[in-house]
């Protein structure tokens, strides 16, 4: 058995991947694949909590896989699989549900946000979303979880469920920790300054890896600015801070430094800054977009990848579930 730390993370198949998914999650996956034993999945079961209509599901699952591969994930190095292909997940989810309390689930920020967004469909899957996520992670006894800042609270809950299980039934699960190569977890802001970029909300304020050059330029040009600072040392308003933050993701440091200096001596021209950001963003996104289109055209390749990924993930899941059933006293025959 491998002695490397185990890594697990997932992305929902709710639509096109965006810059937040890339910098919050996939960029770390790509680095981690050379250093750790990695399990990365398309979270199609989580998708059902908000998107019960499955007409587009297969296409979206293929797209998330293709986007991960186009960003540099190598299916030979990692287990790249689809959540619903691993039936053991649902079993562990059931057991963990007995260790999760209604009060703590109702207090989760993402649950409260989703209740606000879809009051007509407050289903139990939505309430127990963090339990299913904990099952995905604990199923591989993963200790490192590369995710963006929006997932911090869910990770804390996964640690609580793991600890409660270990305390009651014996030490099976390591404590999973959120992981990022920098010192802090990343949050890529929405272009309109209202929260984060997201697949399913805020679509006009999100830059997608599938956006055309023209869309990228248009969205960036629309970002809010003002007449600029009039006194040196003026703190940056949030919407200006967002432009700088996006530049830090895709622009060379000389360009960022130039605009920082212009800001500090009150000569900044936001039109020029947004044009520079648009150029650098296009240079970053266009090659990924083109690669995704090539991969999407080959369905057989995608099916083979999924099957191979599921085999690797199943092996690890089955080993954990044997330990779990035994620890829980659910094995009744000799
Ligand atoms: P979304 O919220 O867009 O539907 P998911 O819930 O599928 O995305 O999250 C997939 C991964 O992308 C998670 O690791 C999450 O932390 C990360 N992520 C999503 N949005 C952002 C963002 N704006 N900034 C940083 N990371 C993000």
Folded structure, characterized:
The mean pLDDT is 95. This protein has 334 residues and is mainly α. It is globular and about 80 Å long. The longest helix has 30 residues, at 299-328. The strands form two sheets. Strands 1-2-3 form a three-stranded parallel β-sheet. Strand 1 (6-12), helix 1 (19-32) and strand 2 form a beta-alpha-beta unit. It folds into two domains: 6-186 and 298-328, HUPs (Rossmann fold); 211-293, Tyrosyl-Transfer RNA Synthetase. It has 14 helices and five strands. The structure holds adenosine-5'-diphosphate (ADP). Residues 11-12, 14, 20-21, 24-25, 147-148, 150-151, 186-188, 196-200 line the site of adenosine-5'-diphosphate.
List keywords for this structure.
Rossmann fold; Tyrosyl-Transfer RNA Synthetase; globular; binds adenosine-5'-diphosphate; two-stranded parallel ribbon; 334 residues; three-stranded parallel β-sheet; 2 domains; mainly alpha; 54% helix
């Amino acid at each position: 058995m491998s002695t490397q730390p185990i890594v697990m993370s997932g992305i929902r198949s709710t639509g096109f991947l965006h810059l937040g998914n890339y910098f919050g999650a996939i960029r770390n996956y790509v680095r981690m694949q050379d250093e750790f034993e990695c399990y990365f999945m398309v979270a199609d079961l989580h998708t059902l909590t908000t998107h019960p209509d499955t007409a587009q599901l297969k296409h979206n699952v293929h797209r998330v896989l293709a986007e991960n591969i186009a960003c540099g994930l190598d299916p030979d190095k990692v287990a790249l699989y689809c959540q619903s292909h691993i039936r053991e997940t649902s079993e562990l989810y059931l057991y963990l549900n007995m260790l999760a309390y209604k009060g703590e689930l109702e207090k989760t920020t993402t649950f409260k946000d989703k209740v606000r967004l879809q009051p007509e469909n407050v289903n139990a899957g939505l309430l127990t979303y963090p339990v299913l996520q904990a099952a995905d992670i604990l199923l591989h006894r993963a200790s490192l979880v590369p995710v963006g800042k929006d997932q911090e609270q869910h990770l804390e809950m996964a640690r609580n469920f793991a600890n409660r299980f270990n305390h009651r039934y014996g030490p099976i699960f390591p404590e999973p920790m959120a992981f990022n190569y920098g010192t802090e977890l990343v949050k890529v802001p929405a272009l309109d300054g209202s929260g984060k970029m997201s697949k399913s909300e805020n679509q006009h304020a999100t830059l997608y890896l599938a956006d055309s050059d023209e869309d990228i330029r248009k969205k960036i040009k629309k970002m809010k600015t003002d007449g600029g600072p009039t006194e040196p040392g003026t703190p940056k308003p949030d919407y200006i801070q967002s432009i700088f933050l996006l530049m830090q993701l895709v622009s060379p440091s000389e360009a960022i430094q130039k605009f920082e200096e212009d800001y500090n001596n009150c000569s900044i021209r936001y039109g020029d800054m947004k044009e520079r950001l648009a150029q650098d963003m296009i240079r970053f996104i266009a090659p990924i977009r083109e690669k995704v289109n090539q991969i999407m055209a080959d369905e057989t390749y995608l099916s083979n990848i999924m099957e191979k990924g599921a085999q690797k993930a199943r092996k690890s899941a089955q080993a954990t579930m044997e330990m779990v059933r035994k620890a829980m006293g659910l094995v009744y025959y000799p």
